[in-house]
């Protein structure tokens, strides 16, 4: 997400350097480039004008801090303006009532049904809520079956209904059941249309009047760019929206919708969908998204993701094993691959590390998830003894493993080589101060703009941003 905008802004912000003070003259060209970058990212024109003016007002006449160079100072101002444009702070769900009712609205194809399932999982796992999902989509073929299937996948209950029933009648019955069975939250999926029309709006108004939800969320496809903000505005005029959910953001390289929706609708973006899987839903934090756009990473989200997905017991056992000098075998290597897969793979992790946005793009192009799956298949084809003692693999064993995993001999040899490198790294990590040395070594090997050399925005020090 935001690749083109991030790349354009990175190039633009590098140009301000060597000035003791930010003036109208020395920021004029940079602001023009920022404006062009935002327009190319399909950000709504009124939002672009407001944003550029906001940055200009803050920048002009400001003394450059002794701790920051002009590029860093300007970056700080752009970061603050981006954060404010998208909403300043994270706006969570305000769940009130027994049960708390959440109505999902939006056009057909925006991903409402999948988002209902993702949100149900989020509430069940992270908020520990008992959730009931309800489909009122009596028009789209198999819409109700789709929600029922997804509900089973995410481990929540789905209210049984059929397409021959009236939406308001289904809703009344679902409300009764939710009260009787003491559900904490009821998520209601409504029918979408190909465009905004009067019949659709009348129906959803009637549903809203019956449900009286504590949250009315507009689900919108991020890939529709400026249209996303305009459609959200149309729905906001018909319904008292409380927030927006941006879907398919992983496929939107421009990011215009994320920057426009808040300003155009006045409603906060509460969640952002970053993939098709049912766990690919993140709370929307404007400050973290602004950091990602500017190539400064998102360490907080990465840490939260690691805490949720990593098996702490296994990690502790591995650390203890390595510390005792028992080595790092292929069984351990496989577990590390599985943990990485849980966290969305290499490109997802790199994208959230400061100065690593460029590497994330390269990692994605080279298909690391495919390589990881291949490595896992090779290890799975080995016996437990072979995983513990890979150095004893001979020609016939290697042939058997390759045939069993459907891979080539060079794939196996590459795996063994990578494993040896990781073994060496693990040994070094047990030495005092080794991690700091390893990080310095990594930064020195990376090309400029990806964490090595001078780093982006002329920051030096491996491209890691200053602490604001």
Structural commentary:
Belongs to the GTP-binding SRP family. SRP54 subfamily. Residues 268-281 form the SRP54-type proteins GTP-binding domain. Keywords: Cytoplasm, GTP-binding, Hydrolase, Nucleotide-binding, Ribonucleoprotein, RNA-binding, Signal recognition particle. It comes from Marinospirillum alkaliphilum DSM 21637. It catalyses: GTP + H2O = GDP + phosphate + H(+). By secondary structure, the protein is an alpha/beta fold. It folds into three domains: 3-86, Four Helix Bundle (Hemerythrin (Met), subunit A) (Up-down Bundle), CATH 1.20.120.140; 100-290, Rossmann fold, CATH 3.40.50; 301-447, Signal recognition particle, SRP54 subunit, M-domain (434 Repressor (Amino-terminal Domain)). It is built from 21 helices and eight strands. The protein has helices at 3-13, 24-40, 45-59, 70-86, 112-125, 143-154, 167-180, 198-211, 226-238, 256-265, 286-293, 299-309, 312-323, 330-342, 345-351, 357-365, 368-380, 384-388, 395-405, 409-429, 434-445, and strands at 100-105, 131-135, 157-158, 185-189, 215-221, 243-247, 269-273, 281-283. The chain has an eight-stranded mixed sheet, sandwiched between helices. Strand 5, helix 9 (226-238) and strand 6 (243-247) form a beta-alpha-beta unit. Helix 3 packs across helix 4, helix 5 (112-125) packs parallel to helix 6 (143-154) and helix 9 (226-238) packs parallel to helix 10. It is flat and about 70 Å long. Mean pLDDT is 75; it is low at 354-360, 432-436 and 438-468.
């Amino acid at each position: 997400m935001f690749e083109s905008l991030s790349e354009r802004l990175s190039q633009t912000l590098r140009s301000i350097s060597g000035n003791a003070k930010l003036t109208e003259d020395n920021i004029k060209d940079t602001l023009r480039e920022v404006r062009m970058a935002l327009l190319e990212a399909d950000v709504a024109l009124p939002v672009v004008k407001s944003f550029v003016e906001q940055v200009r007002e803050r920048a002009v006449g400001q003394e450059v801090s002794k701790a920051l160079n002009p590029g860093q100072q300007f970056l700080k101002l752009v970061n603050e303006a981006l954060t404010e444009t998208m909403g300043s702070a994270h706006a969570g769900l305000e769940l009130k009532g027994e049960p708390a009712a959440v109505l999902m609205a939006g056009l057909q194809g925006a991903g409402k049904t999948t988002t209902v399932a993702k949100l149900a999982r989020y509430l069940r796992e992270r908020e520990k809520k008992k959730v009931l999902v309800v489909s009122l989509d009596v028009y789209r073929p198999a819409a109700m079956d789709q929600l029922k299937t997804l509900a089973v996948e995410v481990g929540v209950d789905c209210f049984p209904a059929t397409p021959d029933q009236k939406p308001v009648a289904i809703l009344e019955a679902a409300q009764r059941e939710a009260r009787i069975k003491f559900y904490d939250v009821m998520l209601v999926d409504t029918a979408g249309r190909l465009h905004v029309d009067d019949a659709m709006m009348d129906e959803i108004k009637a549903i809203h009047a019956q449900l009286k939800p504590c949250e009315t969320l507009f689900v919108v496809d991020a890939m529709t760019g400026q249209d996303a903000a305009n459609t959200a505005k149309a729905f906001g005029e018909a319904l008292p929206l409380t927030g927006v959910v941006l879907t398919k953001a992983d496929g939107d390289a421009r990011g215009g919708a994320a920057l426009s929706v808040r300003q155009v609708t006045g409603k906060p973006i509460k969640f952002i969908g970053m993939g098709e899987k049912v766990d690919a839903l993140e709370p929307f934090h404007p400050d973290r998204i602004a950091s990602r756009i500017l190539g400064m990473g998102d360490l907080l989200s990465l840490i939260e993701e690691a805490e949720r997905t990593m098996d702490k017991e296994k990690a502790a056992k591995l650390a203890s094993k390595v510390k005792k000098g028992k080595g790092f075998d292929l069984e351990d290597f496989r577990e590390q691959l599985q943990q990485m897969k849980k966290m969305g793979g290499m490109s997802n992790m790199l994208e959230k590390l400061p100065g690593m946005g460029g590497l994330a793009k390269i990692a994605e192009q080279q298909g690391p998830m495919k390589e990881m799956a291949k490595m896992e298949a090779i290890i799975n084809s080995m016996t437990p003894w072979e995983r513990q003692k890979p150095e004893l693999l001979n020609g016939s064993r290697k042939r058997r493993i390759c045939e069993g995993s459907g891979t080539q001999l060079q794939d196996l040899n590459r795996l063994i080589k990578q494993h040896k490198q990781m073994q060496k790294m693990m040994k070094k990590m047990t030495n005092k101060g080794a991690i700091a040395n390893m990080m310095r070594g990594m930064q020195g090997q990376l090309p400029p703009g990806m964490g090595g050399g001078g780093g982006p925005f002329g920051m030096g020090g491996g491209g890691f941003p200053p602490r604001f």
